[in-house]
Design brief:
By secondary structure, the chain is an alpha+beta fold. The protein is elongated.
C-alpha cells in the first residue's frame, strides 16, 4: 500500500485570523506548508493575516491531484471567493498594479524549468486537462474585452498550420504539438517558421 507521505494531495490555505480560503494547490511531501516559491499576492495575504494549512484529499497520481485542484478552484470561484493563485491574482491585479520585471523574470524561469522537466506524455496530458477544465467556462465581458485587445493583430490560434522539423524530417499537426514533442519553446518554433530565427536548440522548423 502506498504511504500517504509519498502520495500527491490537494490542499487549501486559510487566513489564520478570519479562516478565509485564499489559496488552492496540489503538492507532495511538505509542499503545503512550504513558503518558498509562492507568488507576491500569496505573501501579502500571509504577512497580513497568517495562514492555516488544510489537506483536502490524497491522490495516487499527479494528474488526479491536478484535476482536483482545478475543480476546487472552480468551486471557490463560483462562490465568489478571491484566490491568490498566480493566474487568478494576475487577472485581478493586472489593470491596477504592475508586476516588477524581476518578478516576471523569476516566475518565467521557474515555469520553463518545470515544463522542461516533464516528459512529452506528461505535457500532452496537462494540455488536455487544461482544455477540459476550461470547457463550458463563461467569460465576463471585461475578460472578453481584454482577450480581444491581446489577440488583435495576432494569428488565430485555431488556424493550426502543419509544421515540419527540417532537421529530423518529422511532421507535426501544429506548433503546439511540435513544441511538446521536441521540448522546445513554441514561440521560438514560430520564429523559425517565419524565418526570424534559423533554429531553436539545434532544430530547424518550417510551416508545411
Amino acid at each position: 500500500m502506498t504511504s500517504l507521505n509519498t502520495m500527491f494531495y490537494t490542499y487549501i490555505h486559510r487566513t489564520a485570523d478570519t479562516n478565509e480560503v485564499f489559496y488552492v494547490g496540489k503538492g507532495k511531501n511538505k509542499r503545503a506548508s512550504d513558503k518558498n516559491n509562492r507568488n507576491v499576492w500569496w505573501h501579502r495575504k500571509v504577512n497580513k493575516h497568517g495562514y492555516i494549512v488544510e489537506i483536502v484529499a490524497y491522490w495516487p497520481t499527479e494528474t488526479e491531484a491536478l484535476q482536483h485542484e482545478f475543480f476546487l478552484i472552480q468551486c471557490f470561484e463560483a462562490m465568489n471567493i478571491t484566490l491568490t493563485n498566480i493566474f487568478k491574482a494576475l487577472g485581478k491585479e493586472r489593470n491596477n498594479k504592475k508586476v516588477s520585471p524581476e518578478s516576471c523574470k523569476n516566475y518565467s524561469k521557474g515555469r520553463k524549468k518545470w515544463w522542461a522537466a516533464m516528459s512529452p506524455e506528461e505535457k500532452l496530458n496537462r494540455v488536455e486537462i487544461l482544455r477540459k477544465a476550461n470547457l463550458g467556462r463563461t467569460l465576463s465581458d471585461e475578460r472578453k474585452k481584454a482577450l480581444s485587445v491581446f489577440r488583435t493583430g495576432r494569428p488565430n490560434p485555431k488556424a493550426c498550420k502543419p509544421v515540419l522539423c527540417v532537421t529530423t524530417g518529422e511532421f507535426f499537426k501544429s506548433v503546439s504539438e511540435a513544441a511538446i514533442k521536441t521540448v522546445r519553446d513554441p514561440a521560438h518554433i514560430v520564429k523559425c517558421c517565419k524565418g526570424k530565427a534559423k533554429a531553436t536548440k539545434g532544430l530547424e522548423f518550417a510551416y508545411v
